[in-house]
Structures are given as structure tokens and as C-alpha cells.
Amino acid sequence: DSMSADTTTTATCGYCATGCGLRLHLKDGEAVGLTPETNYPVNLGMACPKGWEALRVLDSAERATQPLLRDSGGELTPITWDDALTSFCEGMKSVQAKHGAESVAFLSTGQIACEEMAFLGALARFGMGIRHCDGNTRQCMATAVTAYKESFGFDAPPYTYDDFEQSDCMVFIGANPCIGHPIMWERVLRNPNNPEIIVIDPRRTETAAAATQHLQLQPKNDLPLLYAIANELIRRDYVDHDFVQNHTHGFESLRDHVSTFELESVCQNAGLSVDAVSQAIESIGRGNAVSLWWTMGVNQSYQGTRTAQAIINIALLTGNIGRPGTGANSITGQCNAMGSRLWSNTTNLFGHHSFESDADRAKVAEALDIPVERIPTTTSWKYNRIIEGIRNGEIKGLWVVATNPAHSWIDQGDVRELFDQLDFLVVQDMYQTTETCAHADLILPSAGWGEKEGTFINSERRYGLLKKVRHAPGQALADFQIFRGIAHRWGLGDMFAEWTSPEAAFRIMQRASRNQPSDITGIDGYEQIDRCGGIQWPWSQEQADGGFEPEQQRRLFADGHFFHDDQRARLIVDDIDLMPEPADEDFPIVLLTGRGTVSQWHTQTRTRQSPLLRSLYPNQPYIEMNPRDGDALGIDHGDLVRVQSRRGEAEATACLTHSVQSGQAFMPMHYDCTNRLTLSHFDPHSGQPSYKDCAVRIVPV
Ligand code: SF4
Asked: What protein family does this chain belong to (predicted)?
């Protein structure tokens, strides 16, 4: 099809946070094909299978093409947009009239554009009186946000993708970029320094197999191990004393705390050899440019925030930050998780301000040109508290935007029952077939990636542009347009009069960003973002006036100044908590969950629409087990098994593999049944669900 195109344009990909540039081939203004952009600073002219198939998934019979309302007989029936907006406003207002303004909540996403998140957050919290709201980013990035905020003074991943190519030692903790972030991994492969690659992971993942050192620890031994590593780095005097003295706080208490984590006992508990860990410590200690990277193995843990901070501590102790090839680097998951962190107006006030600060509220009110009394003085409940709010009858109306909690939330069976207790559930999505749609009273059909405009922020803090290269099917509308329609119908047209288009919203966001670490006042507009191949934050007016180039790759903390008032980073340590549901006699196996393949995405809402992507991955659930456990249980490779936890059970095909250790098993999150098993427990600081550790038993069917 690309052969018949008459023009091309570039847009950033809409799945993962790598933020690859994709070249769209257009005929008469409609995209007929795509290839990876060869002239984009992120992706080296490559894309993963999901990116290649980005257009295909738009042409699906499962698309939501008209608003649907559940009638008195329980059937979802097509209605007009006019009626849908009326139903939405009447439904939500009647819940609020009966149970209070705060009885309505929304759950949004890291999948929609920054401008859409900003609009939703402002409309709901400043306009509609919704107080409680959160995003699916709670499921993936909340831990990193909290860790960075406490350690650095702002949610600020410090790196730029060049760092993948400039390290001489890279440590990946609970991360499998080979399949999770394959284009980032390509950059690792291009690193000319022949880097030491250390993987800390209970599974022998694709990345672990490619590494120079794999510390295959027992699950949830990461925090003690990182403390033991810090202890040894101090003991062997690999500390950058100047850096620690001039740029951090808390060294003495860290030193005292980690001194109790002796290498031998920690290694014994973790199932590691002292020699292997010692070798890793030497690599970290002697490296000139050491970078540490983490994703969900750390974040999705009941002690995730402290684990992330233990990683940050190692970078700070050794002075591995702010220089090329260094950093304590959280890799983001979703295409716009970073946008959600800055603009969703949920945990943090619009633009990562504080709801509690008078000055911040005044600043945001001015940027949005709204009365300051409209801005709540407290933050929202977190996702898990909203779910509890449904259980307690405090939340009666819920608006779910571009996410699929009936599949993805932890202990799924419980969540599905709770959704049926709501008075009014609205789901706004591209597809009308998601597990969450099955519980909806009203479905609002939205346009997808490629059918609308806006910006995404990738893992290295780069604003990239998404573009409208297709017409949305049927009556589906861009989320931005849906929010506009709701604003008008709710009676808030005047308040949001300036929000006429995504780019108009972007200008409001720029005003609100002034003087924040994430200042973007220097960006001229969409055209400049397009021309530069995206622009990393910060890009302030001062930087733009100072003769710097927006295209230049920028990492944070080059001057050793962090975002706390005293400009010092904090070294934070804590006690170790025990796994809440360890394996026992009844449920003898620890279930790990995670991404299973490069070709599927999260709950497969989009990726299962592509025949090609489907063909690259088993359609039926499978579970990876160690052959020794298979033998003991009488289970052969390929057998159907029943996986049971205290919450529920799932059927899956046994895949016997040495990539998981005996006593553990792994199931991909892409299958609907996996979260029937998971245990509802959370990191206390970030509220992030701990998806990676529950006890199960496996029996032959
Ligand atoms: Fe790139 Fe991620 Fe899109 Fe794949 S899914 S093309 S790695 S941005």
C-alpha cells in the first residue's frame, strides 16, 4: 500500500514509552501504510512488531463506532451522541445529587495524549467536582514517581537514550528490555564499550540470557541484595566521597543501615553465590560510567519504592549520575505514562504541582484562568482506595477512560463484582469488547492513535507528536472532542472556552509548566516538536533564548543540583518487609507475572486485533514451570494444567523451561485469567499493586 502513497508524515508510536518515530504513508490524507522513521532521534530506523502493525489494529470489527447505552433489558443499544452526552451528564449528576459530588470517580490511562489527560483532569476535578481519580499508571509507574520525588525532589528520570550507548557497566533490575523495550535494547547492542551487563532477575529472561552476569535471585530478595551491594561498595571504598558530601543527604544513616546486610547471609537467603555478587560489585565499583535500569520487577512490588530508592542510592553513592552513560533510570511502560505523571491532575496538581500548596494552586488557577476555589486542596485517593470506596459504597459512579481494569487490576474477580455494584459505569474506549465494557452502562466510542492529535512523553522525557492520519470509524470521536462535548453539556463551556484544540490545550500546559523542573515554555508549538523529532523536557524559554538547540540530547543533574530546596538528593533506606503470601504446603509455588512477548501489549485490547501479532503469540494462556516441578507434579510440557490461588483459578498450558527456577512459575499478564490469581496487596508509599508474588498450586487437568 505504501507504494501508492502520495505523501508521508512522521508520528510517535502509541504503545510503549520508547516513543519510536513511525513514518506514515498517506494517500489523499489517509494513511495507507507505515514504516519506521529513519530520521528520528529515538529508534535508529527500527520499530518492533507492535509499531509495524499500528494501523492494522484500527480496522477492526471490535471498534466502538457509536455510543451504546444499556437499556432496561440489560442490552447495550445504540444511541446518538446527543443522547449519550445527556445520559452521561444526567447519570453522573444524579449519582452526585444522591451521594455527594465525591461519589463519582474516574480511572484514566497512560495511553491518551497529554492534552487529553490535562483536559480530563481539569474538567473532572475543577469543573465537575470529582475528587477521586487515578490512572492505570498506578499499575506501572507509581513506584518510580514516588521514589524519584522523595530522592530527587521531583519525578525526574534523569537519562537520555544515548546513555544506553555510553555506559561501560549496565545493571538491569527486574527489567527485560529484550522484549519489553526492544528498541532500547538495540541501543545497548550498539554500545561500543563492550559493557558489562548485569541482570538481577529471578527468571532467566531473554535479557538475562544475553547478559554478561545474571544474578538469578529468589523472588523479592532484591531489596536486601541492593543494600548488601551498597554495604560492600562502602566497605571496598568505591564511594565517590566528593559527590556524596556535596550533593546528598543521609550518608551516615544509609551506611549504618546497610552495614547489617552482610554479603554472605544476604546471598544465602537470595540463593546467590557470594563470588557472583562480588564480581558484580567490582564491576559497579570500577566502572567509569555505570547506569542502573529498572522496570516492573521493581515497581510492581510491595516494597517497590524503597527498592527503587536502593537503586538510586547506588548511583548516588558512586557518583554515577548526570554524566554520559550513568543514572538511576526507571524505564517507563506506556507510551504516555510520563504524560500522565505530569498532566493527569490526579495524585499531583496539574503540571506536577502540589494540591496542598497555596502558591501552586494560585499558579495553576492563573494558568487555566479559573477561580482558585475550584482547585481541591487535597490529593485524590489512590486507585486501590477508589476500589475500596466502591466496596464501601462511597463511590457510586465511575468513568473509565482508555483502560481495562476488569482485566488488568489485581485480584480481578473481586474488581468485576465491585463494578457490578456501581450505580453508573461509563467506559470510553476505542473497542467495545473489552472486559470492562462488559460491565458498562454507557460506552463512549473514541478515536485511537492515528485518528487524532496531541503529544506523548517518552521515557527520556521527550514530547513527541501524534497525528491524525486516519478518519475514526463511524461516530467515534477523539477523546479531546468527547471531553469538550461533556464540558458543554455539563454547563462548563465558559470555563473551558480556551480548550478549543489539543494545541490550544498545549499552550495552557506550557503556562502551567513555567519554572517547574519540567518547564516547556521554550517550545514554539507542534510544528517545532515535529521538526525537531520531539523535544525533551525541560525546554524553558530561558534555555531557548540561551542559544541551546532543542534537538540536543539532555540528561538531568549534570550540575549535581537536585530538585529539593537545598539541591541535595536524599539517600533513603528502610526495613525489609516479608512477602505477604509466601509459598506454603497448600500453595507451594510463587507465581511471577509480567510481559510475555514483544508482540502483545498489556490486556491485548489492541494487539489482538492484528492477525499478524496474534500469529506471533499463543492465543491460549500458558504457564512457565521448571521441569523439576513438572516431574514432581506429573506434568509434561504441553499438558493442560489448573493454576489455583486463594482468589481464583485459571487453566493454562504447561511450558516446561529452565528460565524459571524450581518453586516458581510465570504467567504473562496478557491473558485475562492471570489476574484471577494475583493477591491484592500494595506498596504502602506509592499504592502500586504487587503483581509479582502470590502463592499458587498447579495441578494436572
Ligand atoms: Fe517502538 Fe515501543 Fe512502538 Fe515498539 S511499541 S515501535 S518499541 S514505541
From this structure: Belongs to the prokaryotic molybdopterin-containing oxidoreductase family. NasA/NapA/NarB subfamily.
- Is 110 in the same domain as 227? no
Alpha helices in 322-374 (DSSP H): 337-343, 358-368
Task: Specify the number of domains making up the chain.
Answer: 4
CA of 335 to the centre of ligand 1 (A): 8
Q: Please tell me if the CB atom of residue 156 comes closer than 6 angstroms to any atom of ligand 1.
A: no
Q: Is 13 in the pocket of ligand 1 (CB under 6 A)?
A: yes
Q: What is the pLDDT of residues 128-186, one digit of tens each?
A: 999 999 999 999 999 999 999 999 999 999 999 999 999 999 999 999 999 999 999 99
Give the position, in ligand 1's atom list, of the atom nearest the Cα of 36: 6
Which domain, by its residues, includes 624? 589-700
DSSP labels, 204-261: --HHHHHSSEEE-PPTT-HHHHHHHHHHHHHHTT---HHHHHHHEE-HHHHHHHHTT-
**C-beta 180 within 6 A of ligand 1:** no
Written as nine digits, the cell of 147 is 521514589
Whether residues 275 and 162 fall in one domain: yes
Q: Which three cell numbers stand for residue 222?
A: 532484591
CB of 51 sitting under 6 A from ligand 1: yes
Host H or E run for residue 350: none
Tell me whether residue 152 is in a domain. Answer: no
* Amino acid of residue 157: P
Mutating to test ligand 1, I would choose from 12, 20, 24 the residue with most ligand atoms within 8 A of its C-beta, which is 20
Q: What is the pTM of this model?
A: 0.97
Report d(CA 402, CA 413) in Å as an integer.
20
Bridge-based pairing of strands 589-594 and 664-668 is parallel
